[in-house]
Structures are given as C-alpha cells and as structure tokens.
C-alpha cells in the first residue's frame, strides 16, 4: 500500500492503524508537541509513538524540526506545548540527566565530544559511574570503542580526532548504557561504507534486544536497509507516517519537500567537451604523495577512499591550507601554495570548526571571503552586499528568519549552505569541496549538485571529496581512489559507478591503517605528552632553574635561606589566589575580583585577629574571612548564570564594589594582626615555609581531581564546551557556580597568607593580585578559553613571577624591568605552547 499524506489529520489516522500491528509495546509517546524559538515555530502539533524492538526513521528537510524533536525527547529543550509519556508514565519536564536515567541515549549529528578532554575522559564524564565500578576504566573504555570499531589512543585529546572518529565516539557513548530508546541523528553523515555497515549491525543487535531506535537520516537508501517505520516532518509539522515496506521513494520525497522532484543529479559533461583547466602533477604533502590528475572544463572530479587515507589532507593542500611539493597548474598558470590560498574556495567537512564564525550573522558569514567584491576605496557597500547575499541565498533555498540572524540559529543543512554561499560569492578560480552535502537533506542536495555542476560548466574546476560512493557516481565525471596517501585507481566516464569505487577503495585500503599507524607511532608518545595540560611544567621548571643560577652568578645571596624563604612565602599567597583564578578559567569564565577580595578579607580580619583578642574572637575573624569568600563566590556565579552578566562584567563590578567596601571599613592601614597567628602562618622547615608545602599539596590534590575524578572532568567539560556539557546531562549552572565558589575560597587562603605578610588591615593591598594571578595561570599553560589547565603549572607560574620580582631587586634594576620581563615571559609562553601543541596536533 502506497501512502502520500499531506496533512496531520491523515497522518494521525495512519498512526492509529499502524499501532494495531507494532513491533513491540509503545515505549515513548509524544502528543501534540509544539516548540517555538523567539516567536518562530520549530514544531507544531506533532504526535508520534516509538515502539520497542523497532527502528523508526524520521525524515525531513533541513529545518523541518527533526533535531528539535530529538532535543525535546532527550531533555535539552522543553516543549512549548504538548506532553511526553515514557512506558505509559507522563514526564512533566524531561531533563538530560532524567533521560539518561530512563535509558534514553542520543548520538548527536554534531557530536557532544569535549575537545579539551581525552577520549577516556569523554567517556567517563558522559557515562554513569557504575559502568566503571570495580573494573579497569581503560579496559571498559577499550571494549566500548571496539564495539564501534574505533581504534584511537585513549589519552588522545578530543580536538585531535577526525569528524568521523568523533561520530563513532558519540555512537559508542550512546550504545554503552544499553539504552531502551536510542536516538541516532544523522549517524552516518561522516562515516565511510565500512563504518556504516558496522553501525547497521549494531543497530540490528540492539533492536533484537528490545531497544526502540529513532533514526534520523537524509539518505533514502539507508531507510530501506535499516528502518521498519518512517515519519516525515516538513516545516515543523508531521506530514505522514508509514511502514517502510508500504511506501515508495517517490511518495516519501513528495512528502519531504512538498512537491515532486526530478532527477537528483544534473547531466554530466560530454566526454572530451573541454580542454584541461586544472592539472595536478606529483603532488605530495602530509599523509599523501605522488597524486596526479587532470580536470577538463565542465568536469567535476571526485576523491574517494576509506577514511584516513589522505583525502582530507589532499583537499586542504589544494585549498592552500597546508604546504605541498609538486606542480599545480590552473588555466595554464603554475600556482604556489600561497597562490592557491587566494584562488581556491574551500568547503571544509567540519563546518563548525572551520566553516563558520559562530559569533557572526548569516550575512557576515556568507560575505566574509568576498568583502573586496563589495568595497570601493576600502568602504563596503552594504546595499550591494545584501543584494548579492540575498540572491545567493534564494538560489540555495536557505531557510532563515533573516540574513541578520545568528548563524548558530540555523539547522545543520542550512549552515552548510552558508558555507557554499561564501565559496560562490568569492568568485573562486577553483572550488574544493570536502564532504559538501554532509548533513544536508535530499532537496538541498539536488540544489548543491546543480550549483556545483553550473560552476564547473562555467569553467571553474570543482573537486569533491565524499565518503558516499553513490554521490560520487551521480555527480562526478572522474574519480580518483586513494589508499595510503596515493592514487590507486582513476575512474572516468562509464567506469564511474558505485561498485567500482567501493571495490577499489576497500581492496586497496585493506592494510592502510597499519601503514599509517606505523608512521604515527614513532611520534605518538611525544604528540600525546605535549598535548597534556602539564607539559608546560617542564619549560617552566627549566626557566626557574636558569633564572636561579643566573641570579646566583650575579649575587650569591640570591639563593640564601632568607631570600629563598621570602620568595616562597610571596609565591604562596599568589599561588593560592592563582589556583582560585585557575578554577574560574577552567570553567570558561574569569574572576577579576580576586585581588580586591583578598584585600577586603584582610581588612575584615584586621578587626578580629588582633593582639589581645580572645581566641574565640580570632576564630570568628577567620570564619568571617571565609564567609565573605563564600558570599562573593556565590554572588559572582549567580550574576553570571542567572542575571546573564558576562564573567568580565560581573567580576569587574565585584572588583569595584569590594575595593570600595575596603576603604569604607578602613581609610588607611590599621588593625595589626596577632603576632602568634602570624608566627603560625609563617612557620618554616629550614628555608621552606610550611604554607608553601600546603600549597603544593593542594596543587597535587587538585590535579588528581582534575584528571581522575568526576568533579574535575565536569569542571573542564563546562569550560571546554558548555553546550556539549549540557547535552551529555551535566548540571552546567551548578558546576559553574561551584567553580566561582572554589575560586573565592582559594582566594581566602591567599588572603590568610597576605594577612601574615603585611600584618595589618590595609585597604590598598591585594588589588595587584588580580593581574598577577592571571599572569601566573597563563604561564602555567591554562587556556583563557576554558577547559584546559593545570594547578601544578599555576603554582610554578606563581613561583616564577616572584622569582622575577626578586631578581629585579637583586640586580638593582628599576621596577619597569619587572613588567618587561613578565610581559616577555607571557608572550614567549603563549608562542611556545601554541606552536608545540599545533605541531603535535598535526
């Protein structure tokens, strides 16, 4: 029976009919779900059920509401109207953590992989702790990755993974909890055929065990292979539902796009119709070598092969994004690496990392590479820019409320169209498209294919890398198949068929991974070491030693017991405050209030911790000192998370307020600190202050928590990617506020040391610690973007700063040199860390 419904009423009738013969009982029921964003409806009155032991596919164009519906099921979004039932029980407010407890797992189209955490840490922070209890975490993780055929080092950082590897990691996380409902959002978008076949096998296994699988895809062929039932969404409404065996592809396409579609692929170029306009001879670079091919006018050339065999690197080289050896000739002109950078338009496979500027509007993203085109004498014509961008958007059928809307508000497929729009607007001499239709619906695919063919016919060479052999067959006039970085077969004309492409790729790449792994293993230990957060400790230690020896060579008293003790005492106060600053930075924020907070605490303490005061009063002074830290930390966190202040604005306001309060309490130095208390705080073991040992202990304990305990992973996860952290079920607001509370409490410990050093309540003290703490943290290797950092490096950064200050004094230099040396250290550290980590990532 063929089904081709166009309204919700008919769809509901069919839903009732199909439920009389389900694969299993209803696990999840959504009733009349609606969801709006800023007055724009993403879903309207959608009702659908999902049964146990069944693969239920959800189809629709980009922006049809599929991902919104899945986010409602997984608790990321709350519906504006409608209800959810799980196993017959109503769920009033689904949350990600609740969804996980119920056994609902989701593998997102854009993986919720935290780039600053290792593969092992990504698994441990996202999965229930019980999964690892009583077992070796590495063994459990290895088993989970083996299930999906992902073979990467567990210590590899998330940002070193390819898009395909991230997708497999996302699927591994979803399968790990043995879910009752498994949501797969475009799971094969970045997978090759081998990985896709593996995934289908895993899906069939979980369905046999009674799991309900919700499968979102744009690929009609996959629907026939894996799904039992299908629901179609269009413009946020349900347009139909049917058993897959009872509906034709044409009827499905009509429901998806609302109209009958012609051929997906435009006609190919006539054989021998044009002269060669692009010639690549003996091209070699990172992970590929001796690649040669020619492109005739009107032709589109495809690049195929099992993922990881040099295709992506070749595409980046042809776009001028990495160096190469060989010869590239475009329209008779030999081009260099730098020439290609300006001539080629690149469509990257990972649009989020490389294709889009998330903070810019849709218009700004589209016109970014063509600003010269819209400018006269350096002034951009907004009218011309808007007209050309709007015209390009119309040709691509981009669905957006306005070209001035944030690009992040678009669906994945529409974001991909923005990447294509930018490529076209730049009037390139060469188009290099790496997985150009990844995550794009069937209607938009046809439009993209047509545009690429028009560009090629107009004389611009087009090179397409795709993991979809059927796409290469339908679109390309010639296909080169790569294995181990080399071209193993070139197919053209009638030989460009899916079977030939797949056969050439699989047979040639049977042992490709082993060859690549051998080349990688020689540098594996070094690569993973320099990617660790504690790698900066080695150059820091070297600088500290060199500076100590230099100071001693100029003045032997530089390493005297008195001077060493003095430097370490100063470093202890800064070290505690810097650890607090580090916590804020790790969470993705910053705390400008730490300096005035430390000074304010000392002023407060100066009213209670005095000579002649009874011990209960002294203890009350310490209690008030820490209570002030708790209040300030909570207020900072709440202002940022709930009052929507930026971290800089919130903590700057607190900076000013605390400094003012200090002067209200004391208009000058007064209230001398109890000498016995000072003696206890400054107690030493030889030249080493006991407090400095305590600082080191805190640093190592904090480091252990960061690397091996769930609170540490959660803190770094929030700083690494707040959206991904929320999607894996973390309480982002709670973690962020706890981070600012921790920052204030460590600042309180620093204030105790500062109190002992100055011995008096002085409202002018402490302010400089804000800048010094940030400097120490940066020297220690912590990222100002969040997610990456180390307490050990932070303490070493504090020691180095105090050592520089002391050396300037011993060498008889002016205070100006102190700031010169600090600035030079920061710039050098930033340059070294970014360069080394960048090379290691490559």
From TrEMBL:
The keyword Transport applies. It comes from the Bacteria. GO terms for molecular function: ATP binding; ATP hydrolysis activity; transmembrane transporter activity. Residues 28-260, 273-509 form the ABC transporter domain. SUPFAM superfamilies: P-loop containing nucleoside triphosphate hydrolases (SSF52540). Residues 1-23 are annotated as: Disordered. One of its GO terms (cellular component) is plasma membrane. CDD domains: ABC_Carb_Monos_I (cd03216), ABC_Carb_Monos_II (cd03215), TM_PBP1_transp_AraH_like (cd06579). It is found in: Cell membrane. The keyword Cell division does not apply. This is ABC transporter. It comes from Devosia psychrophila.
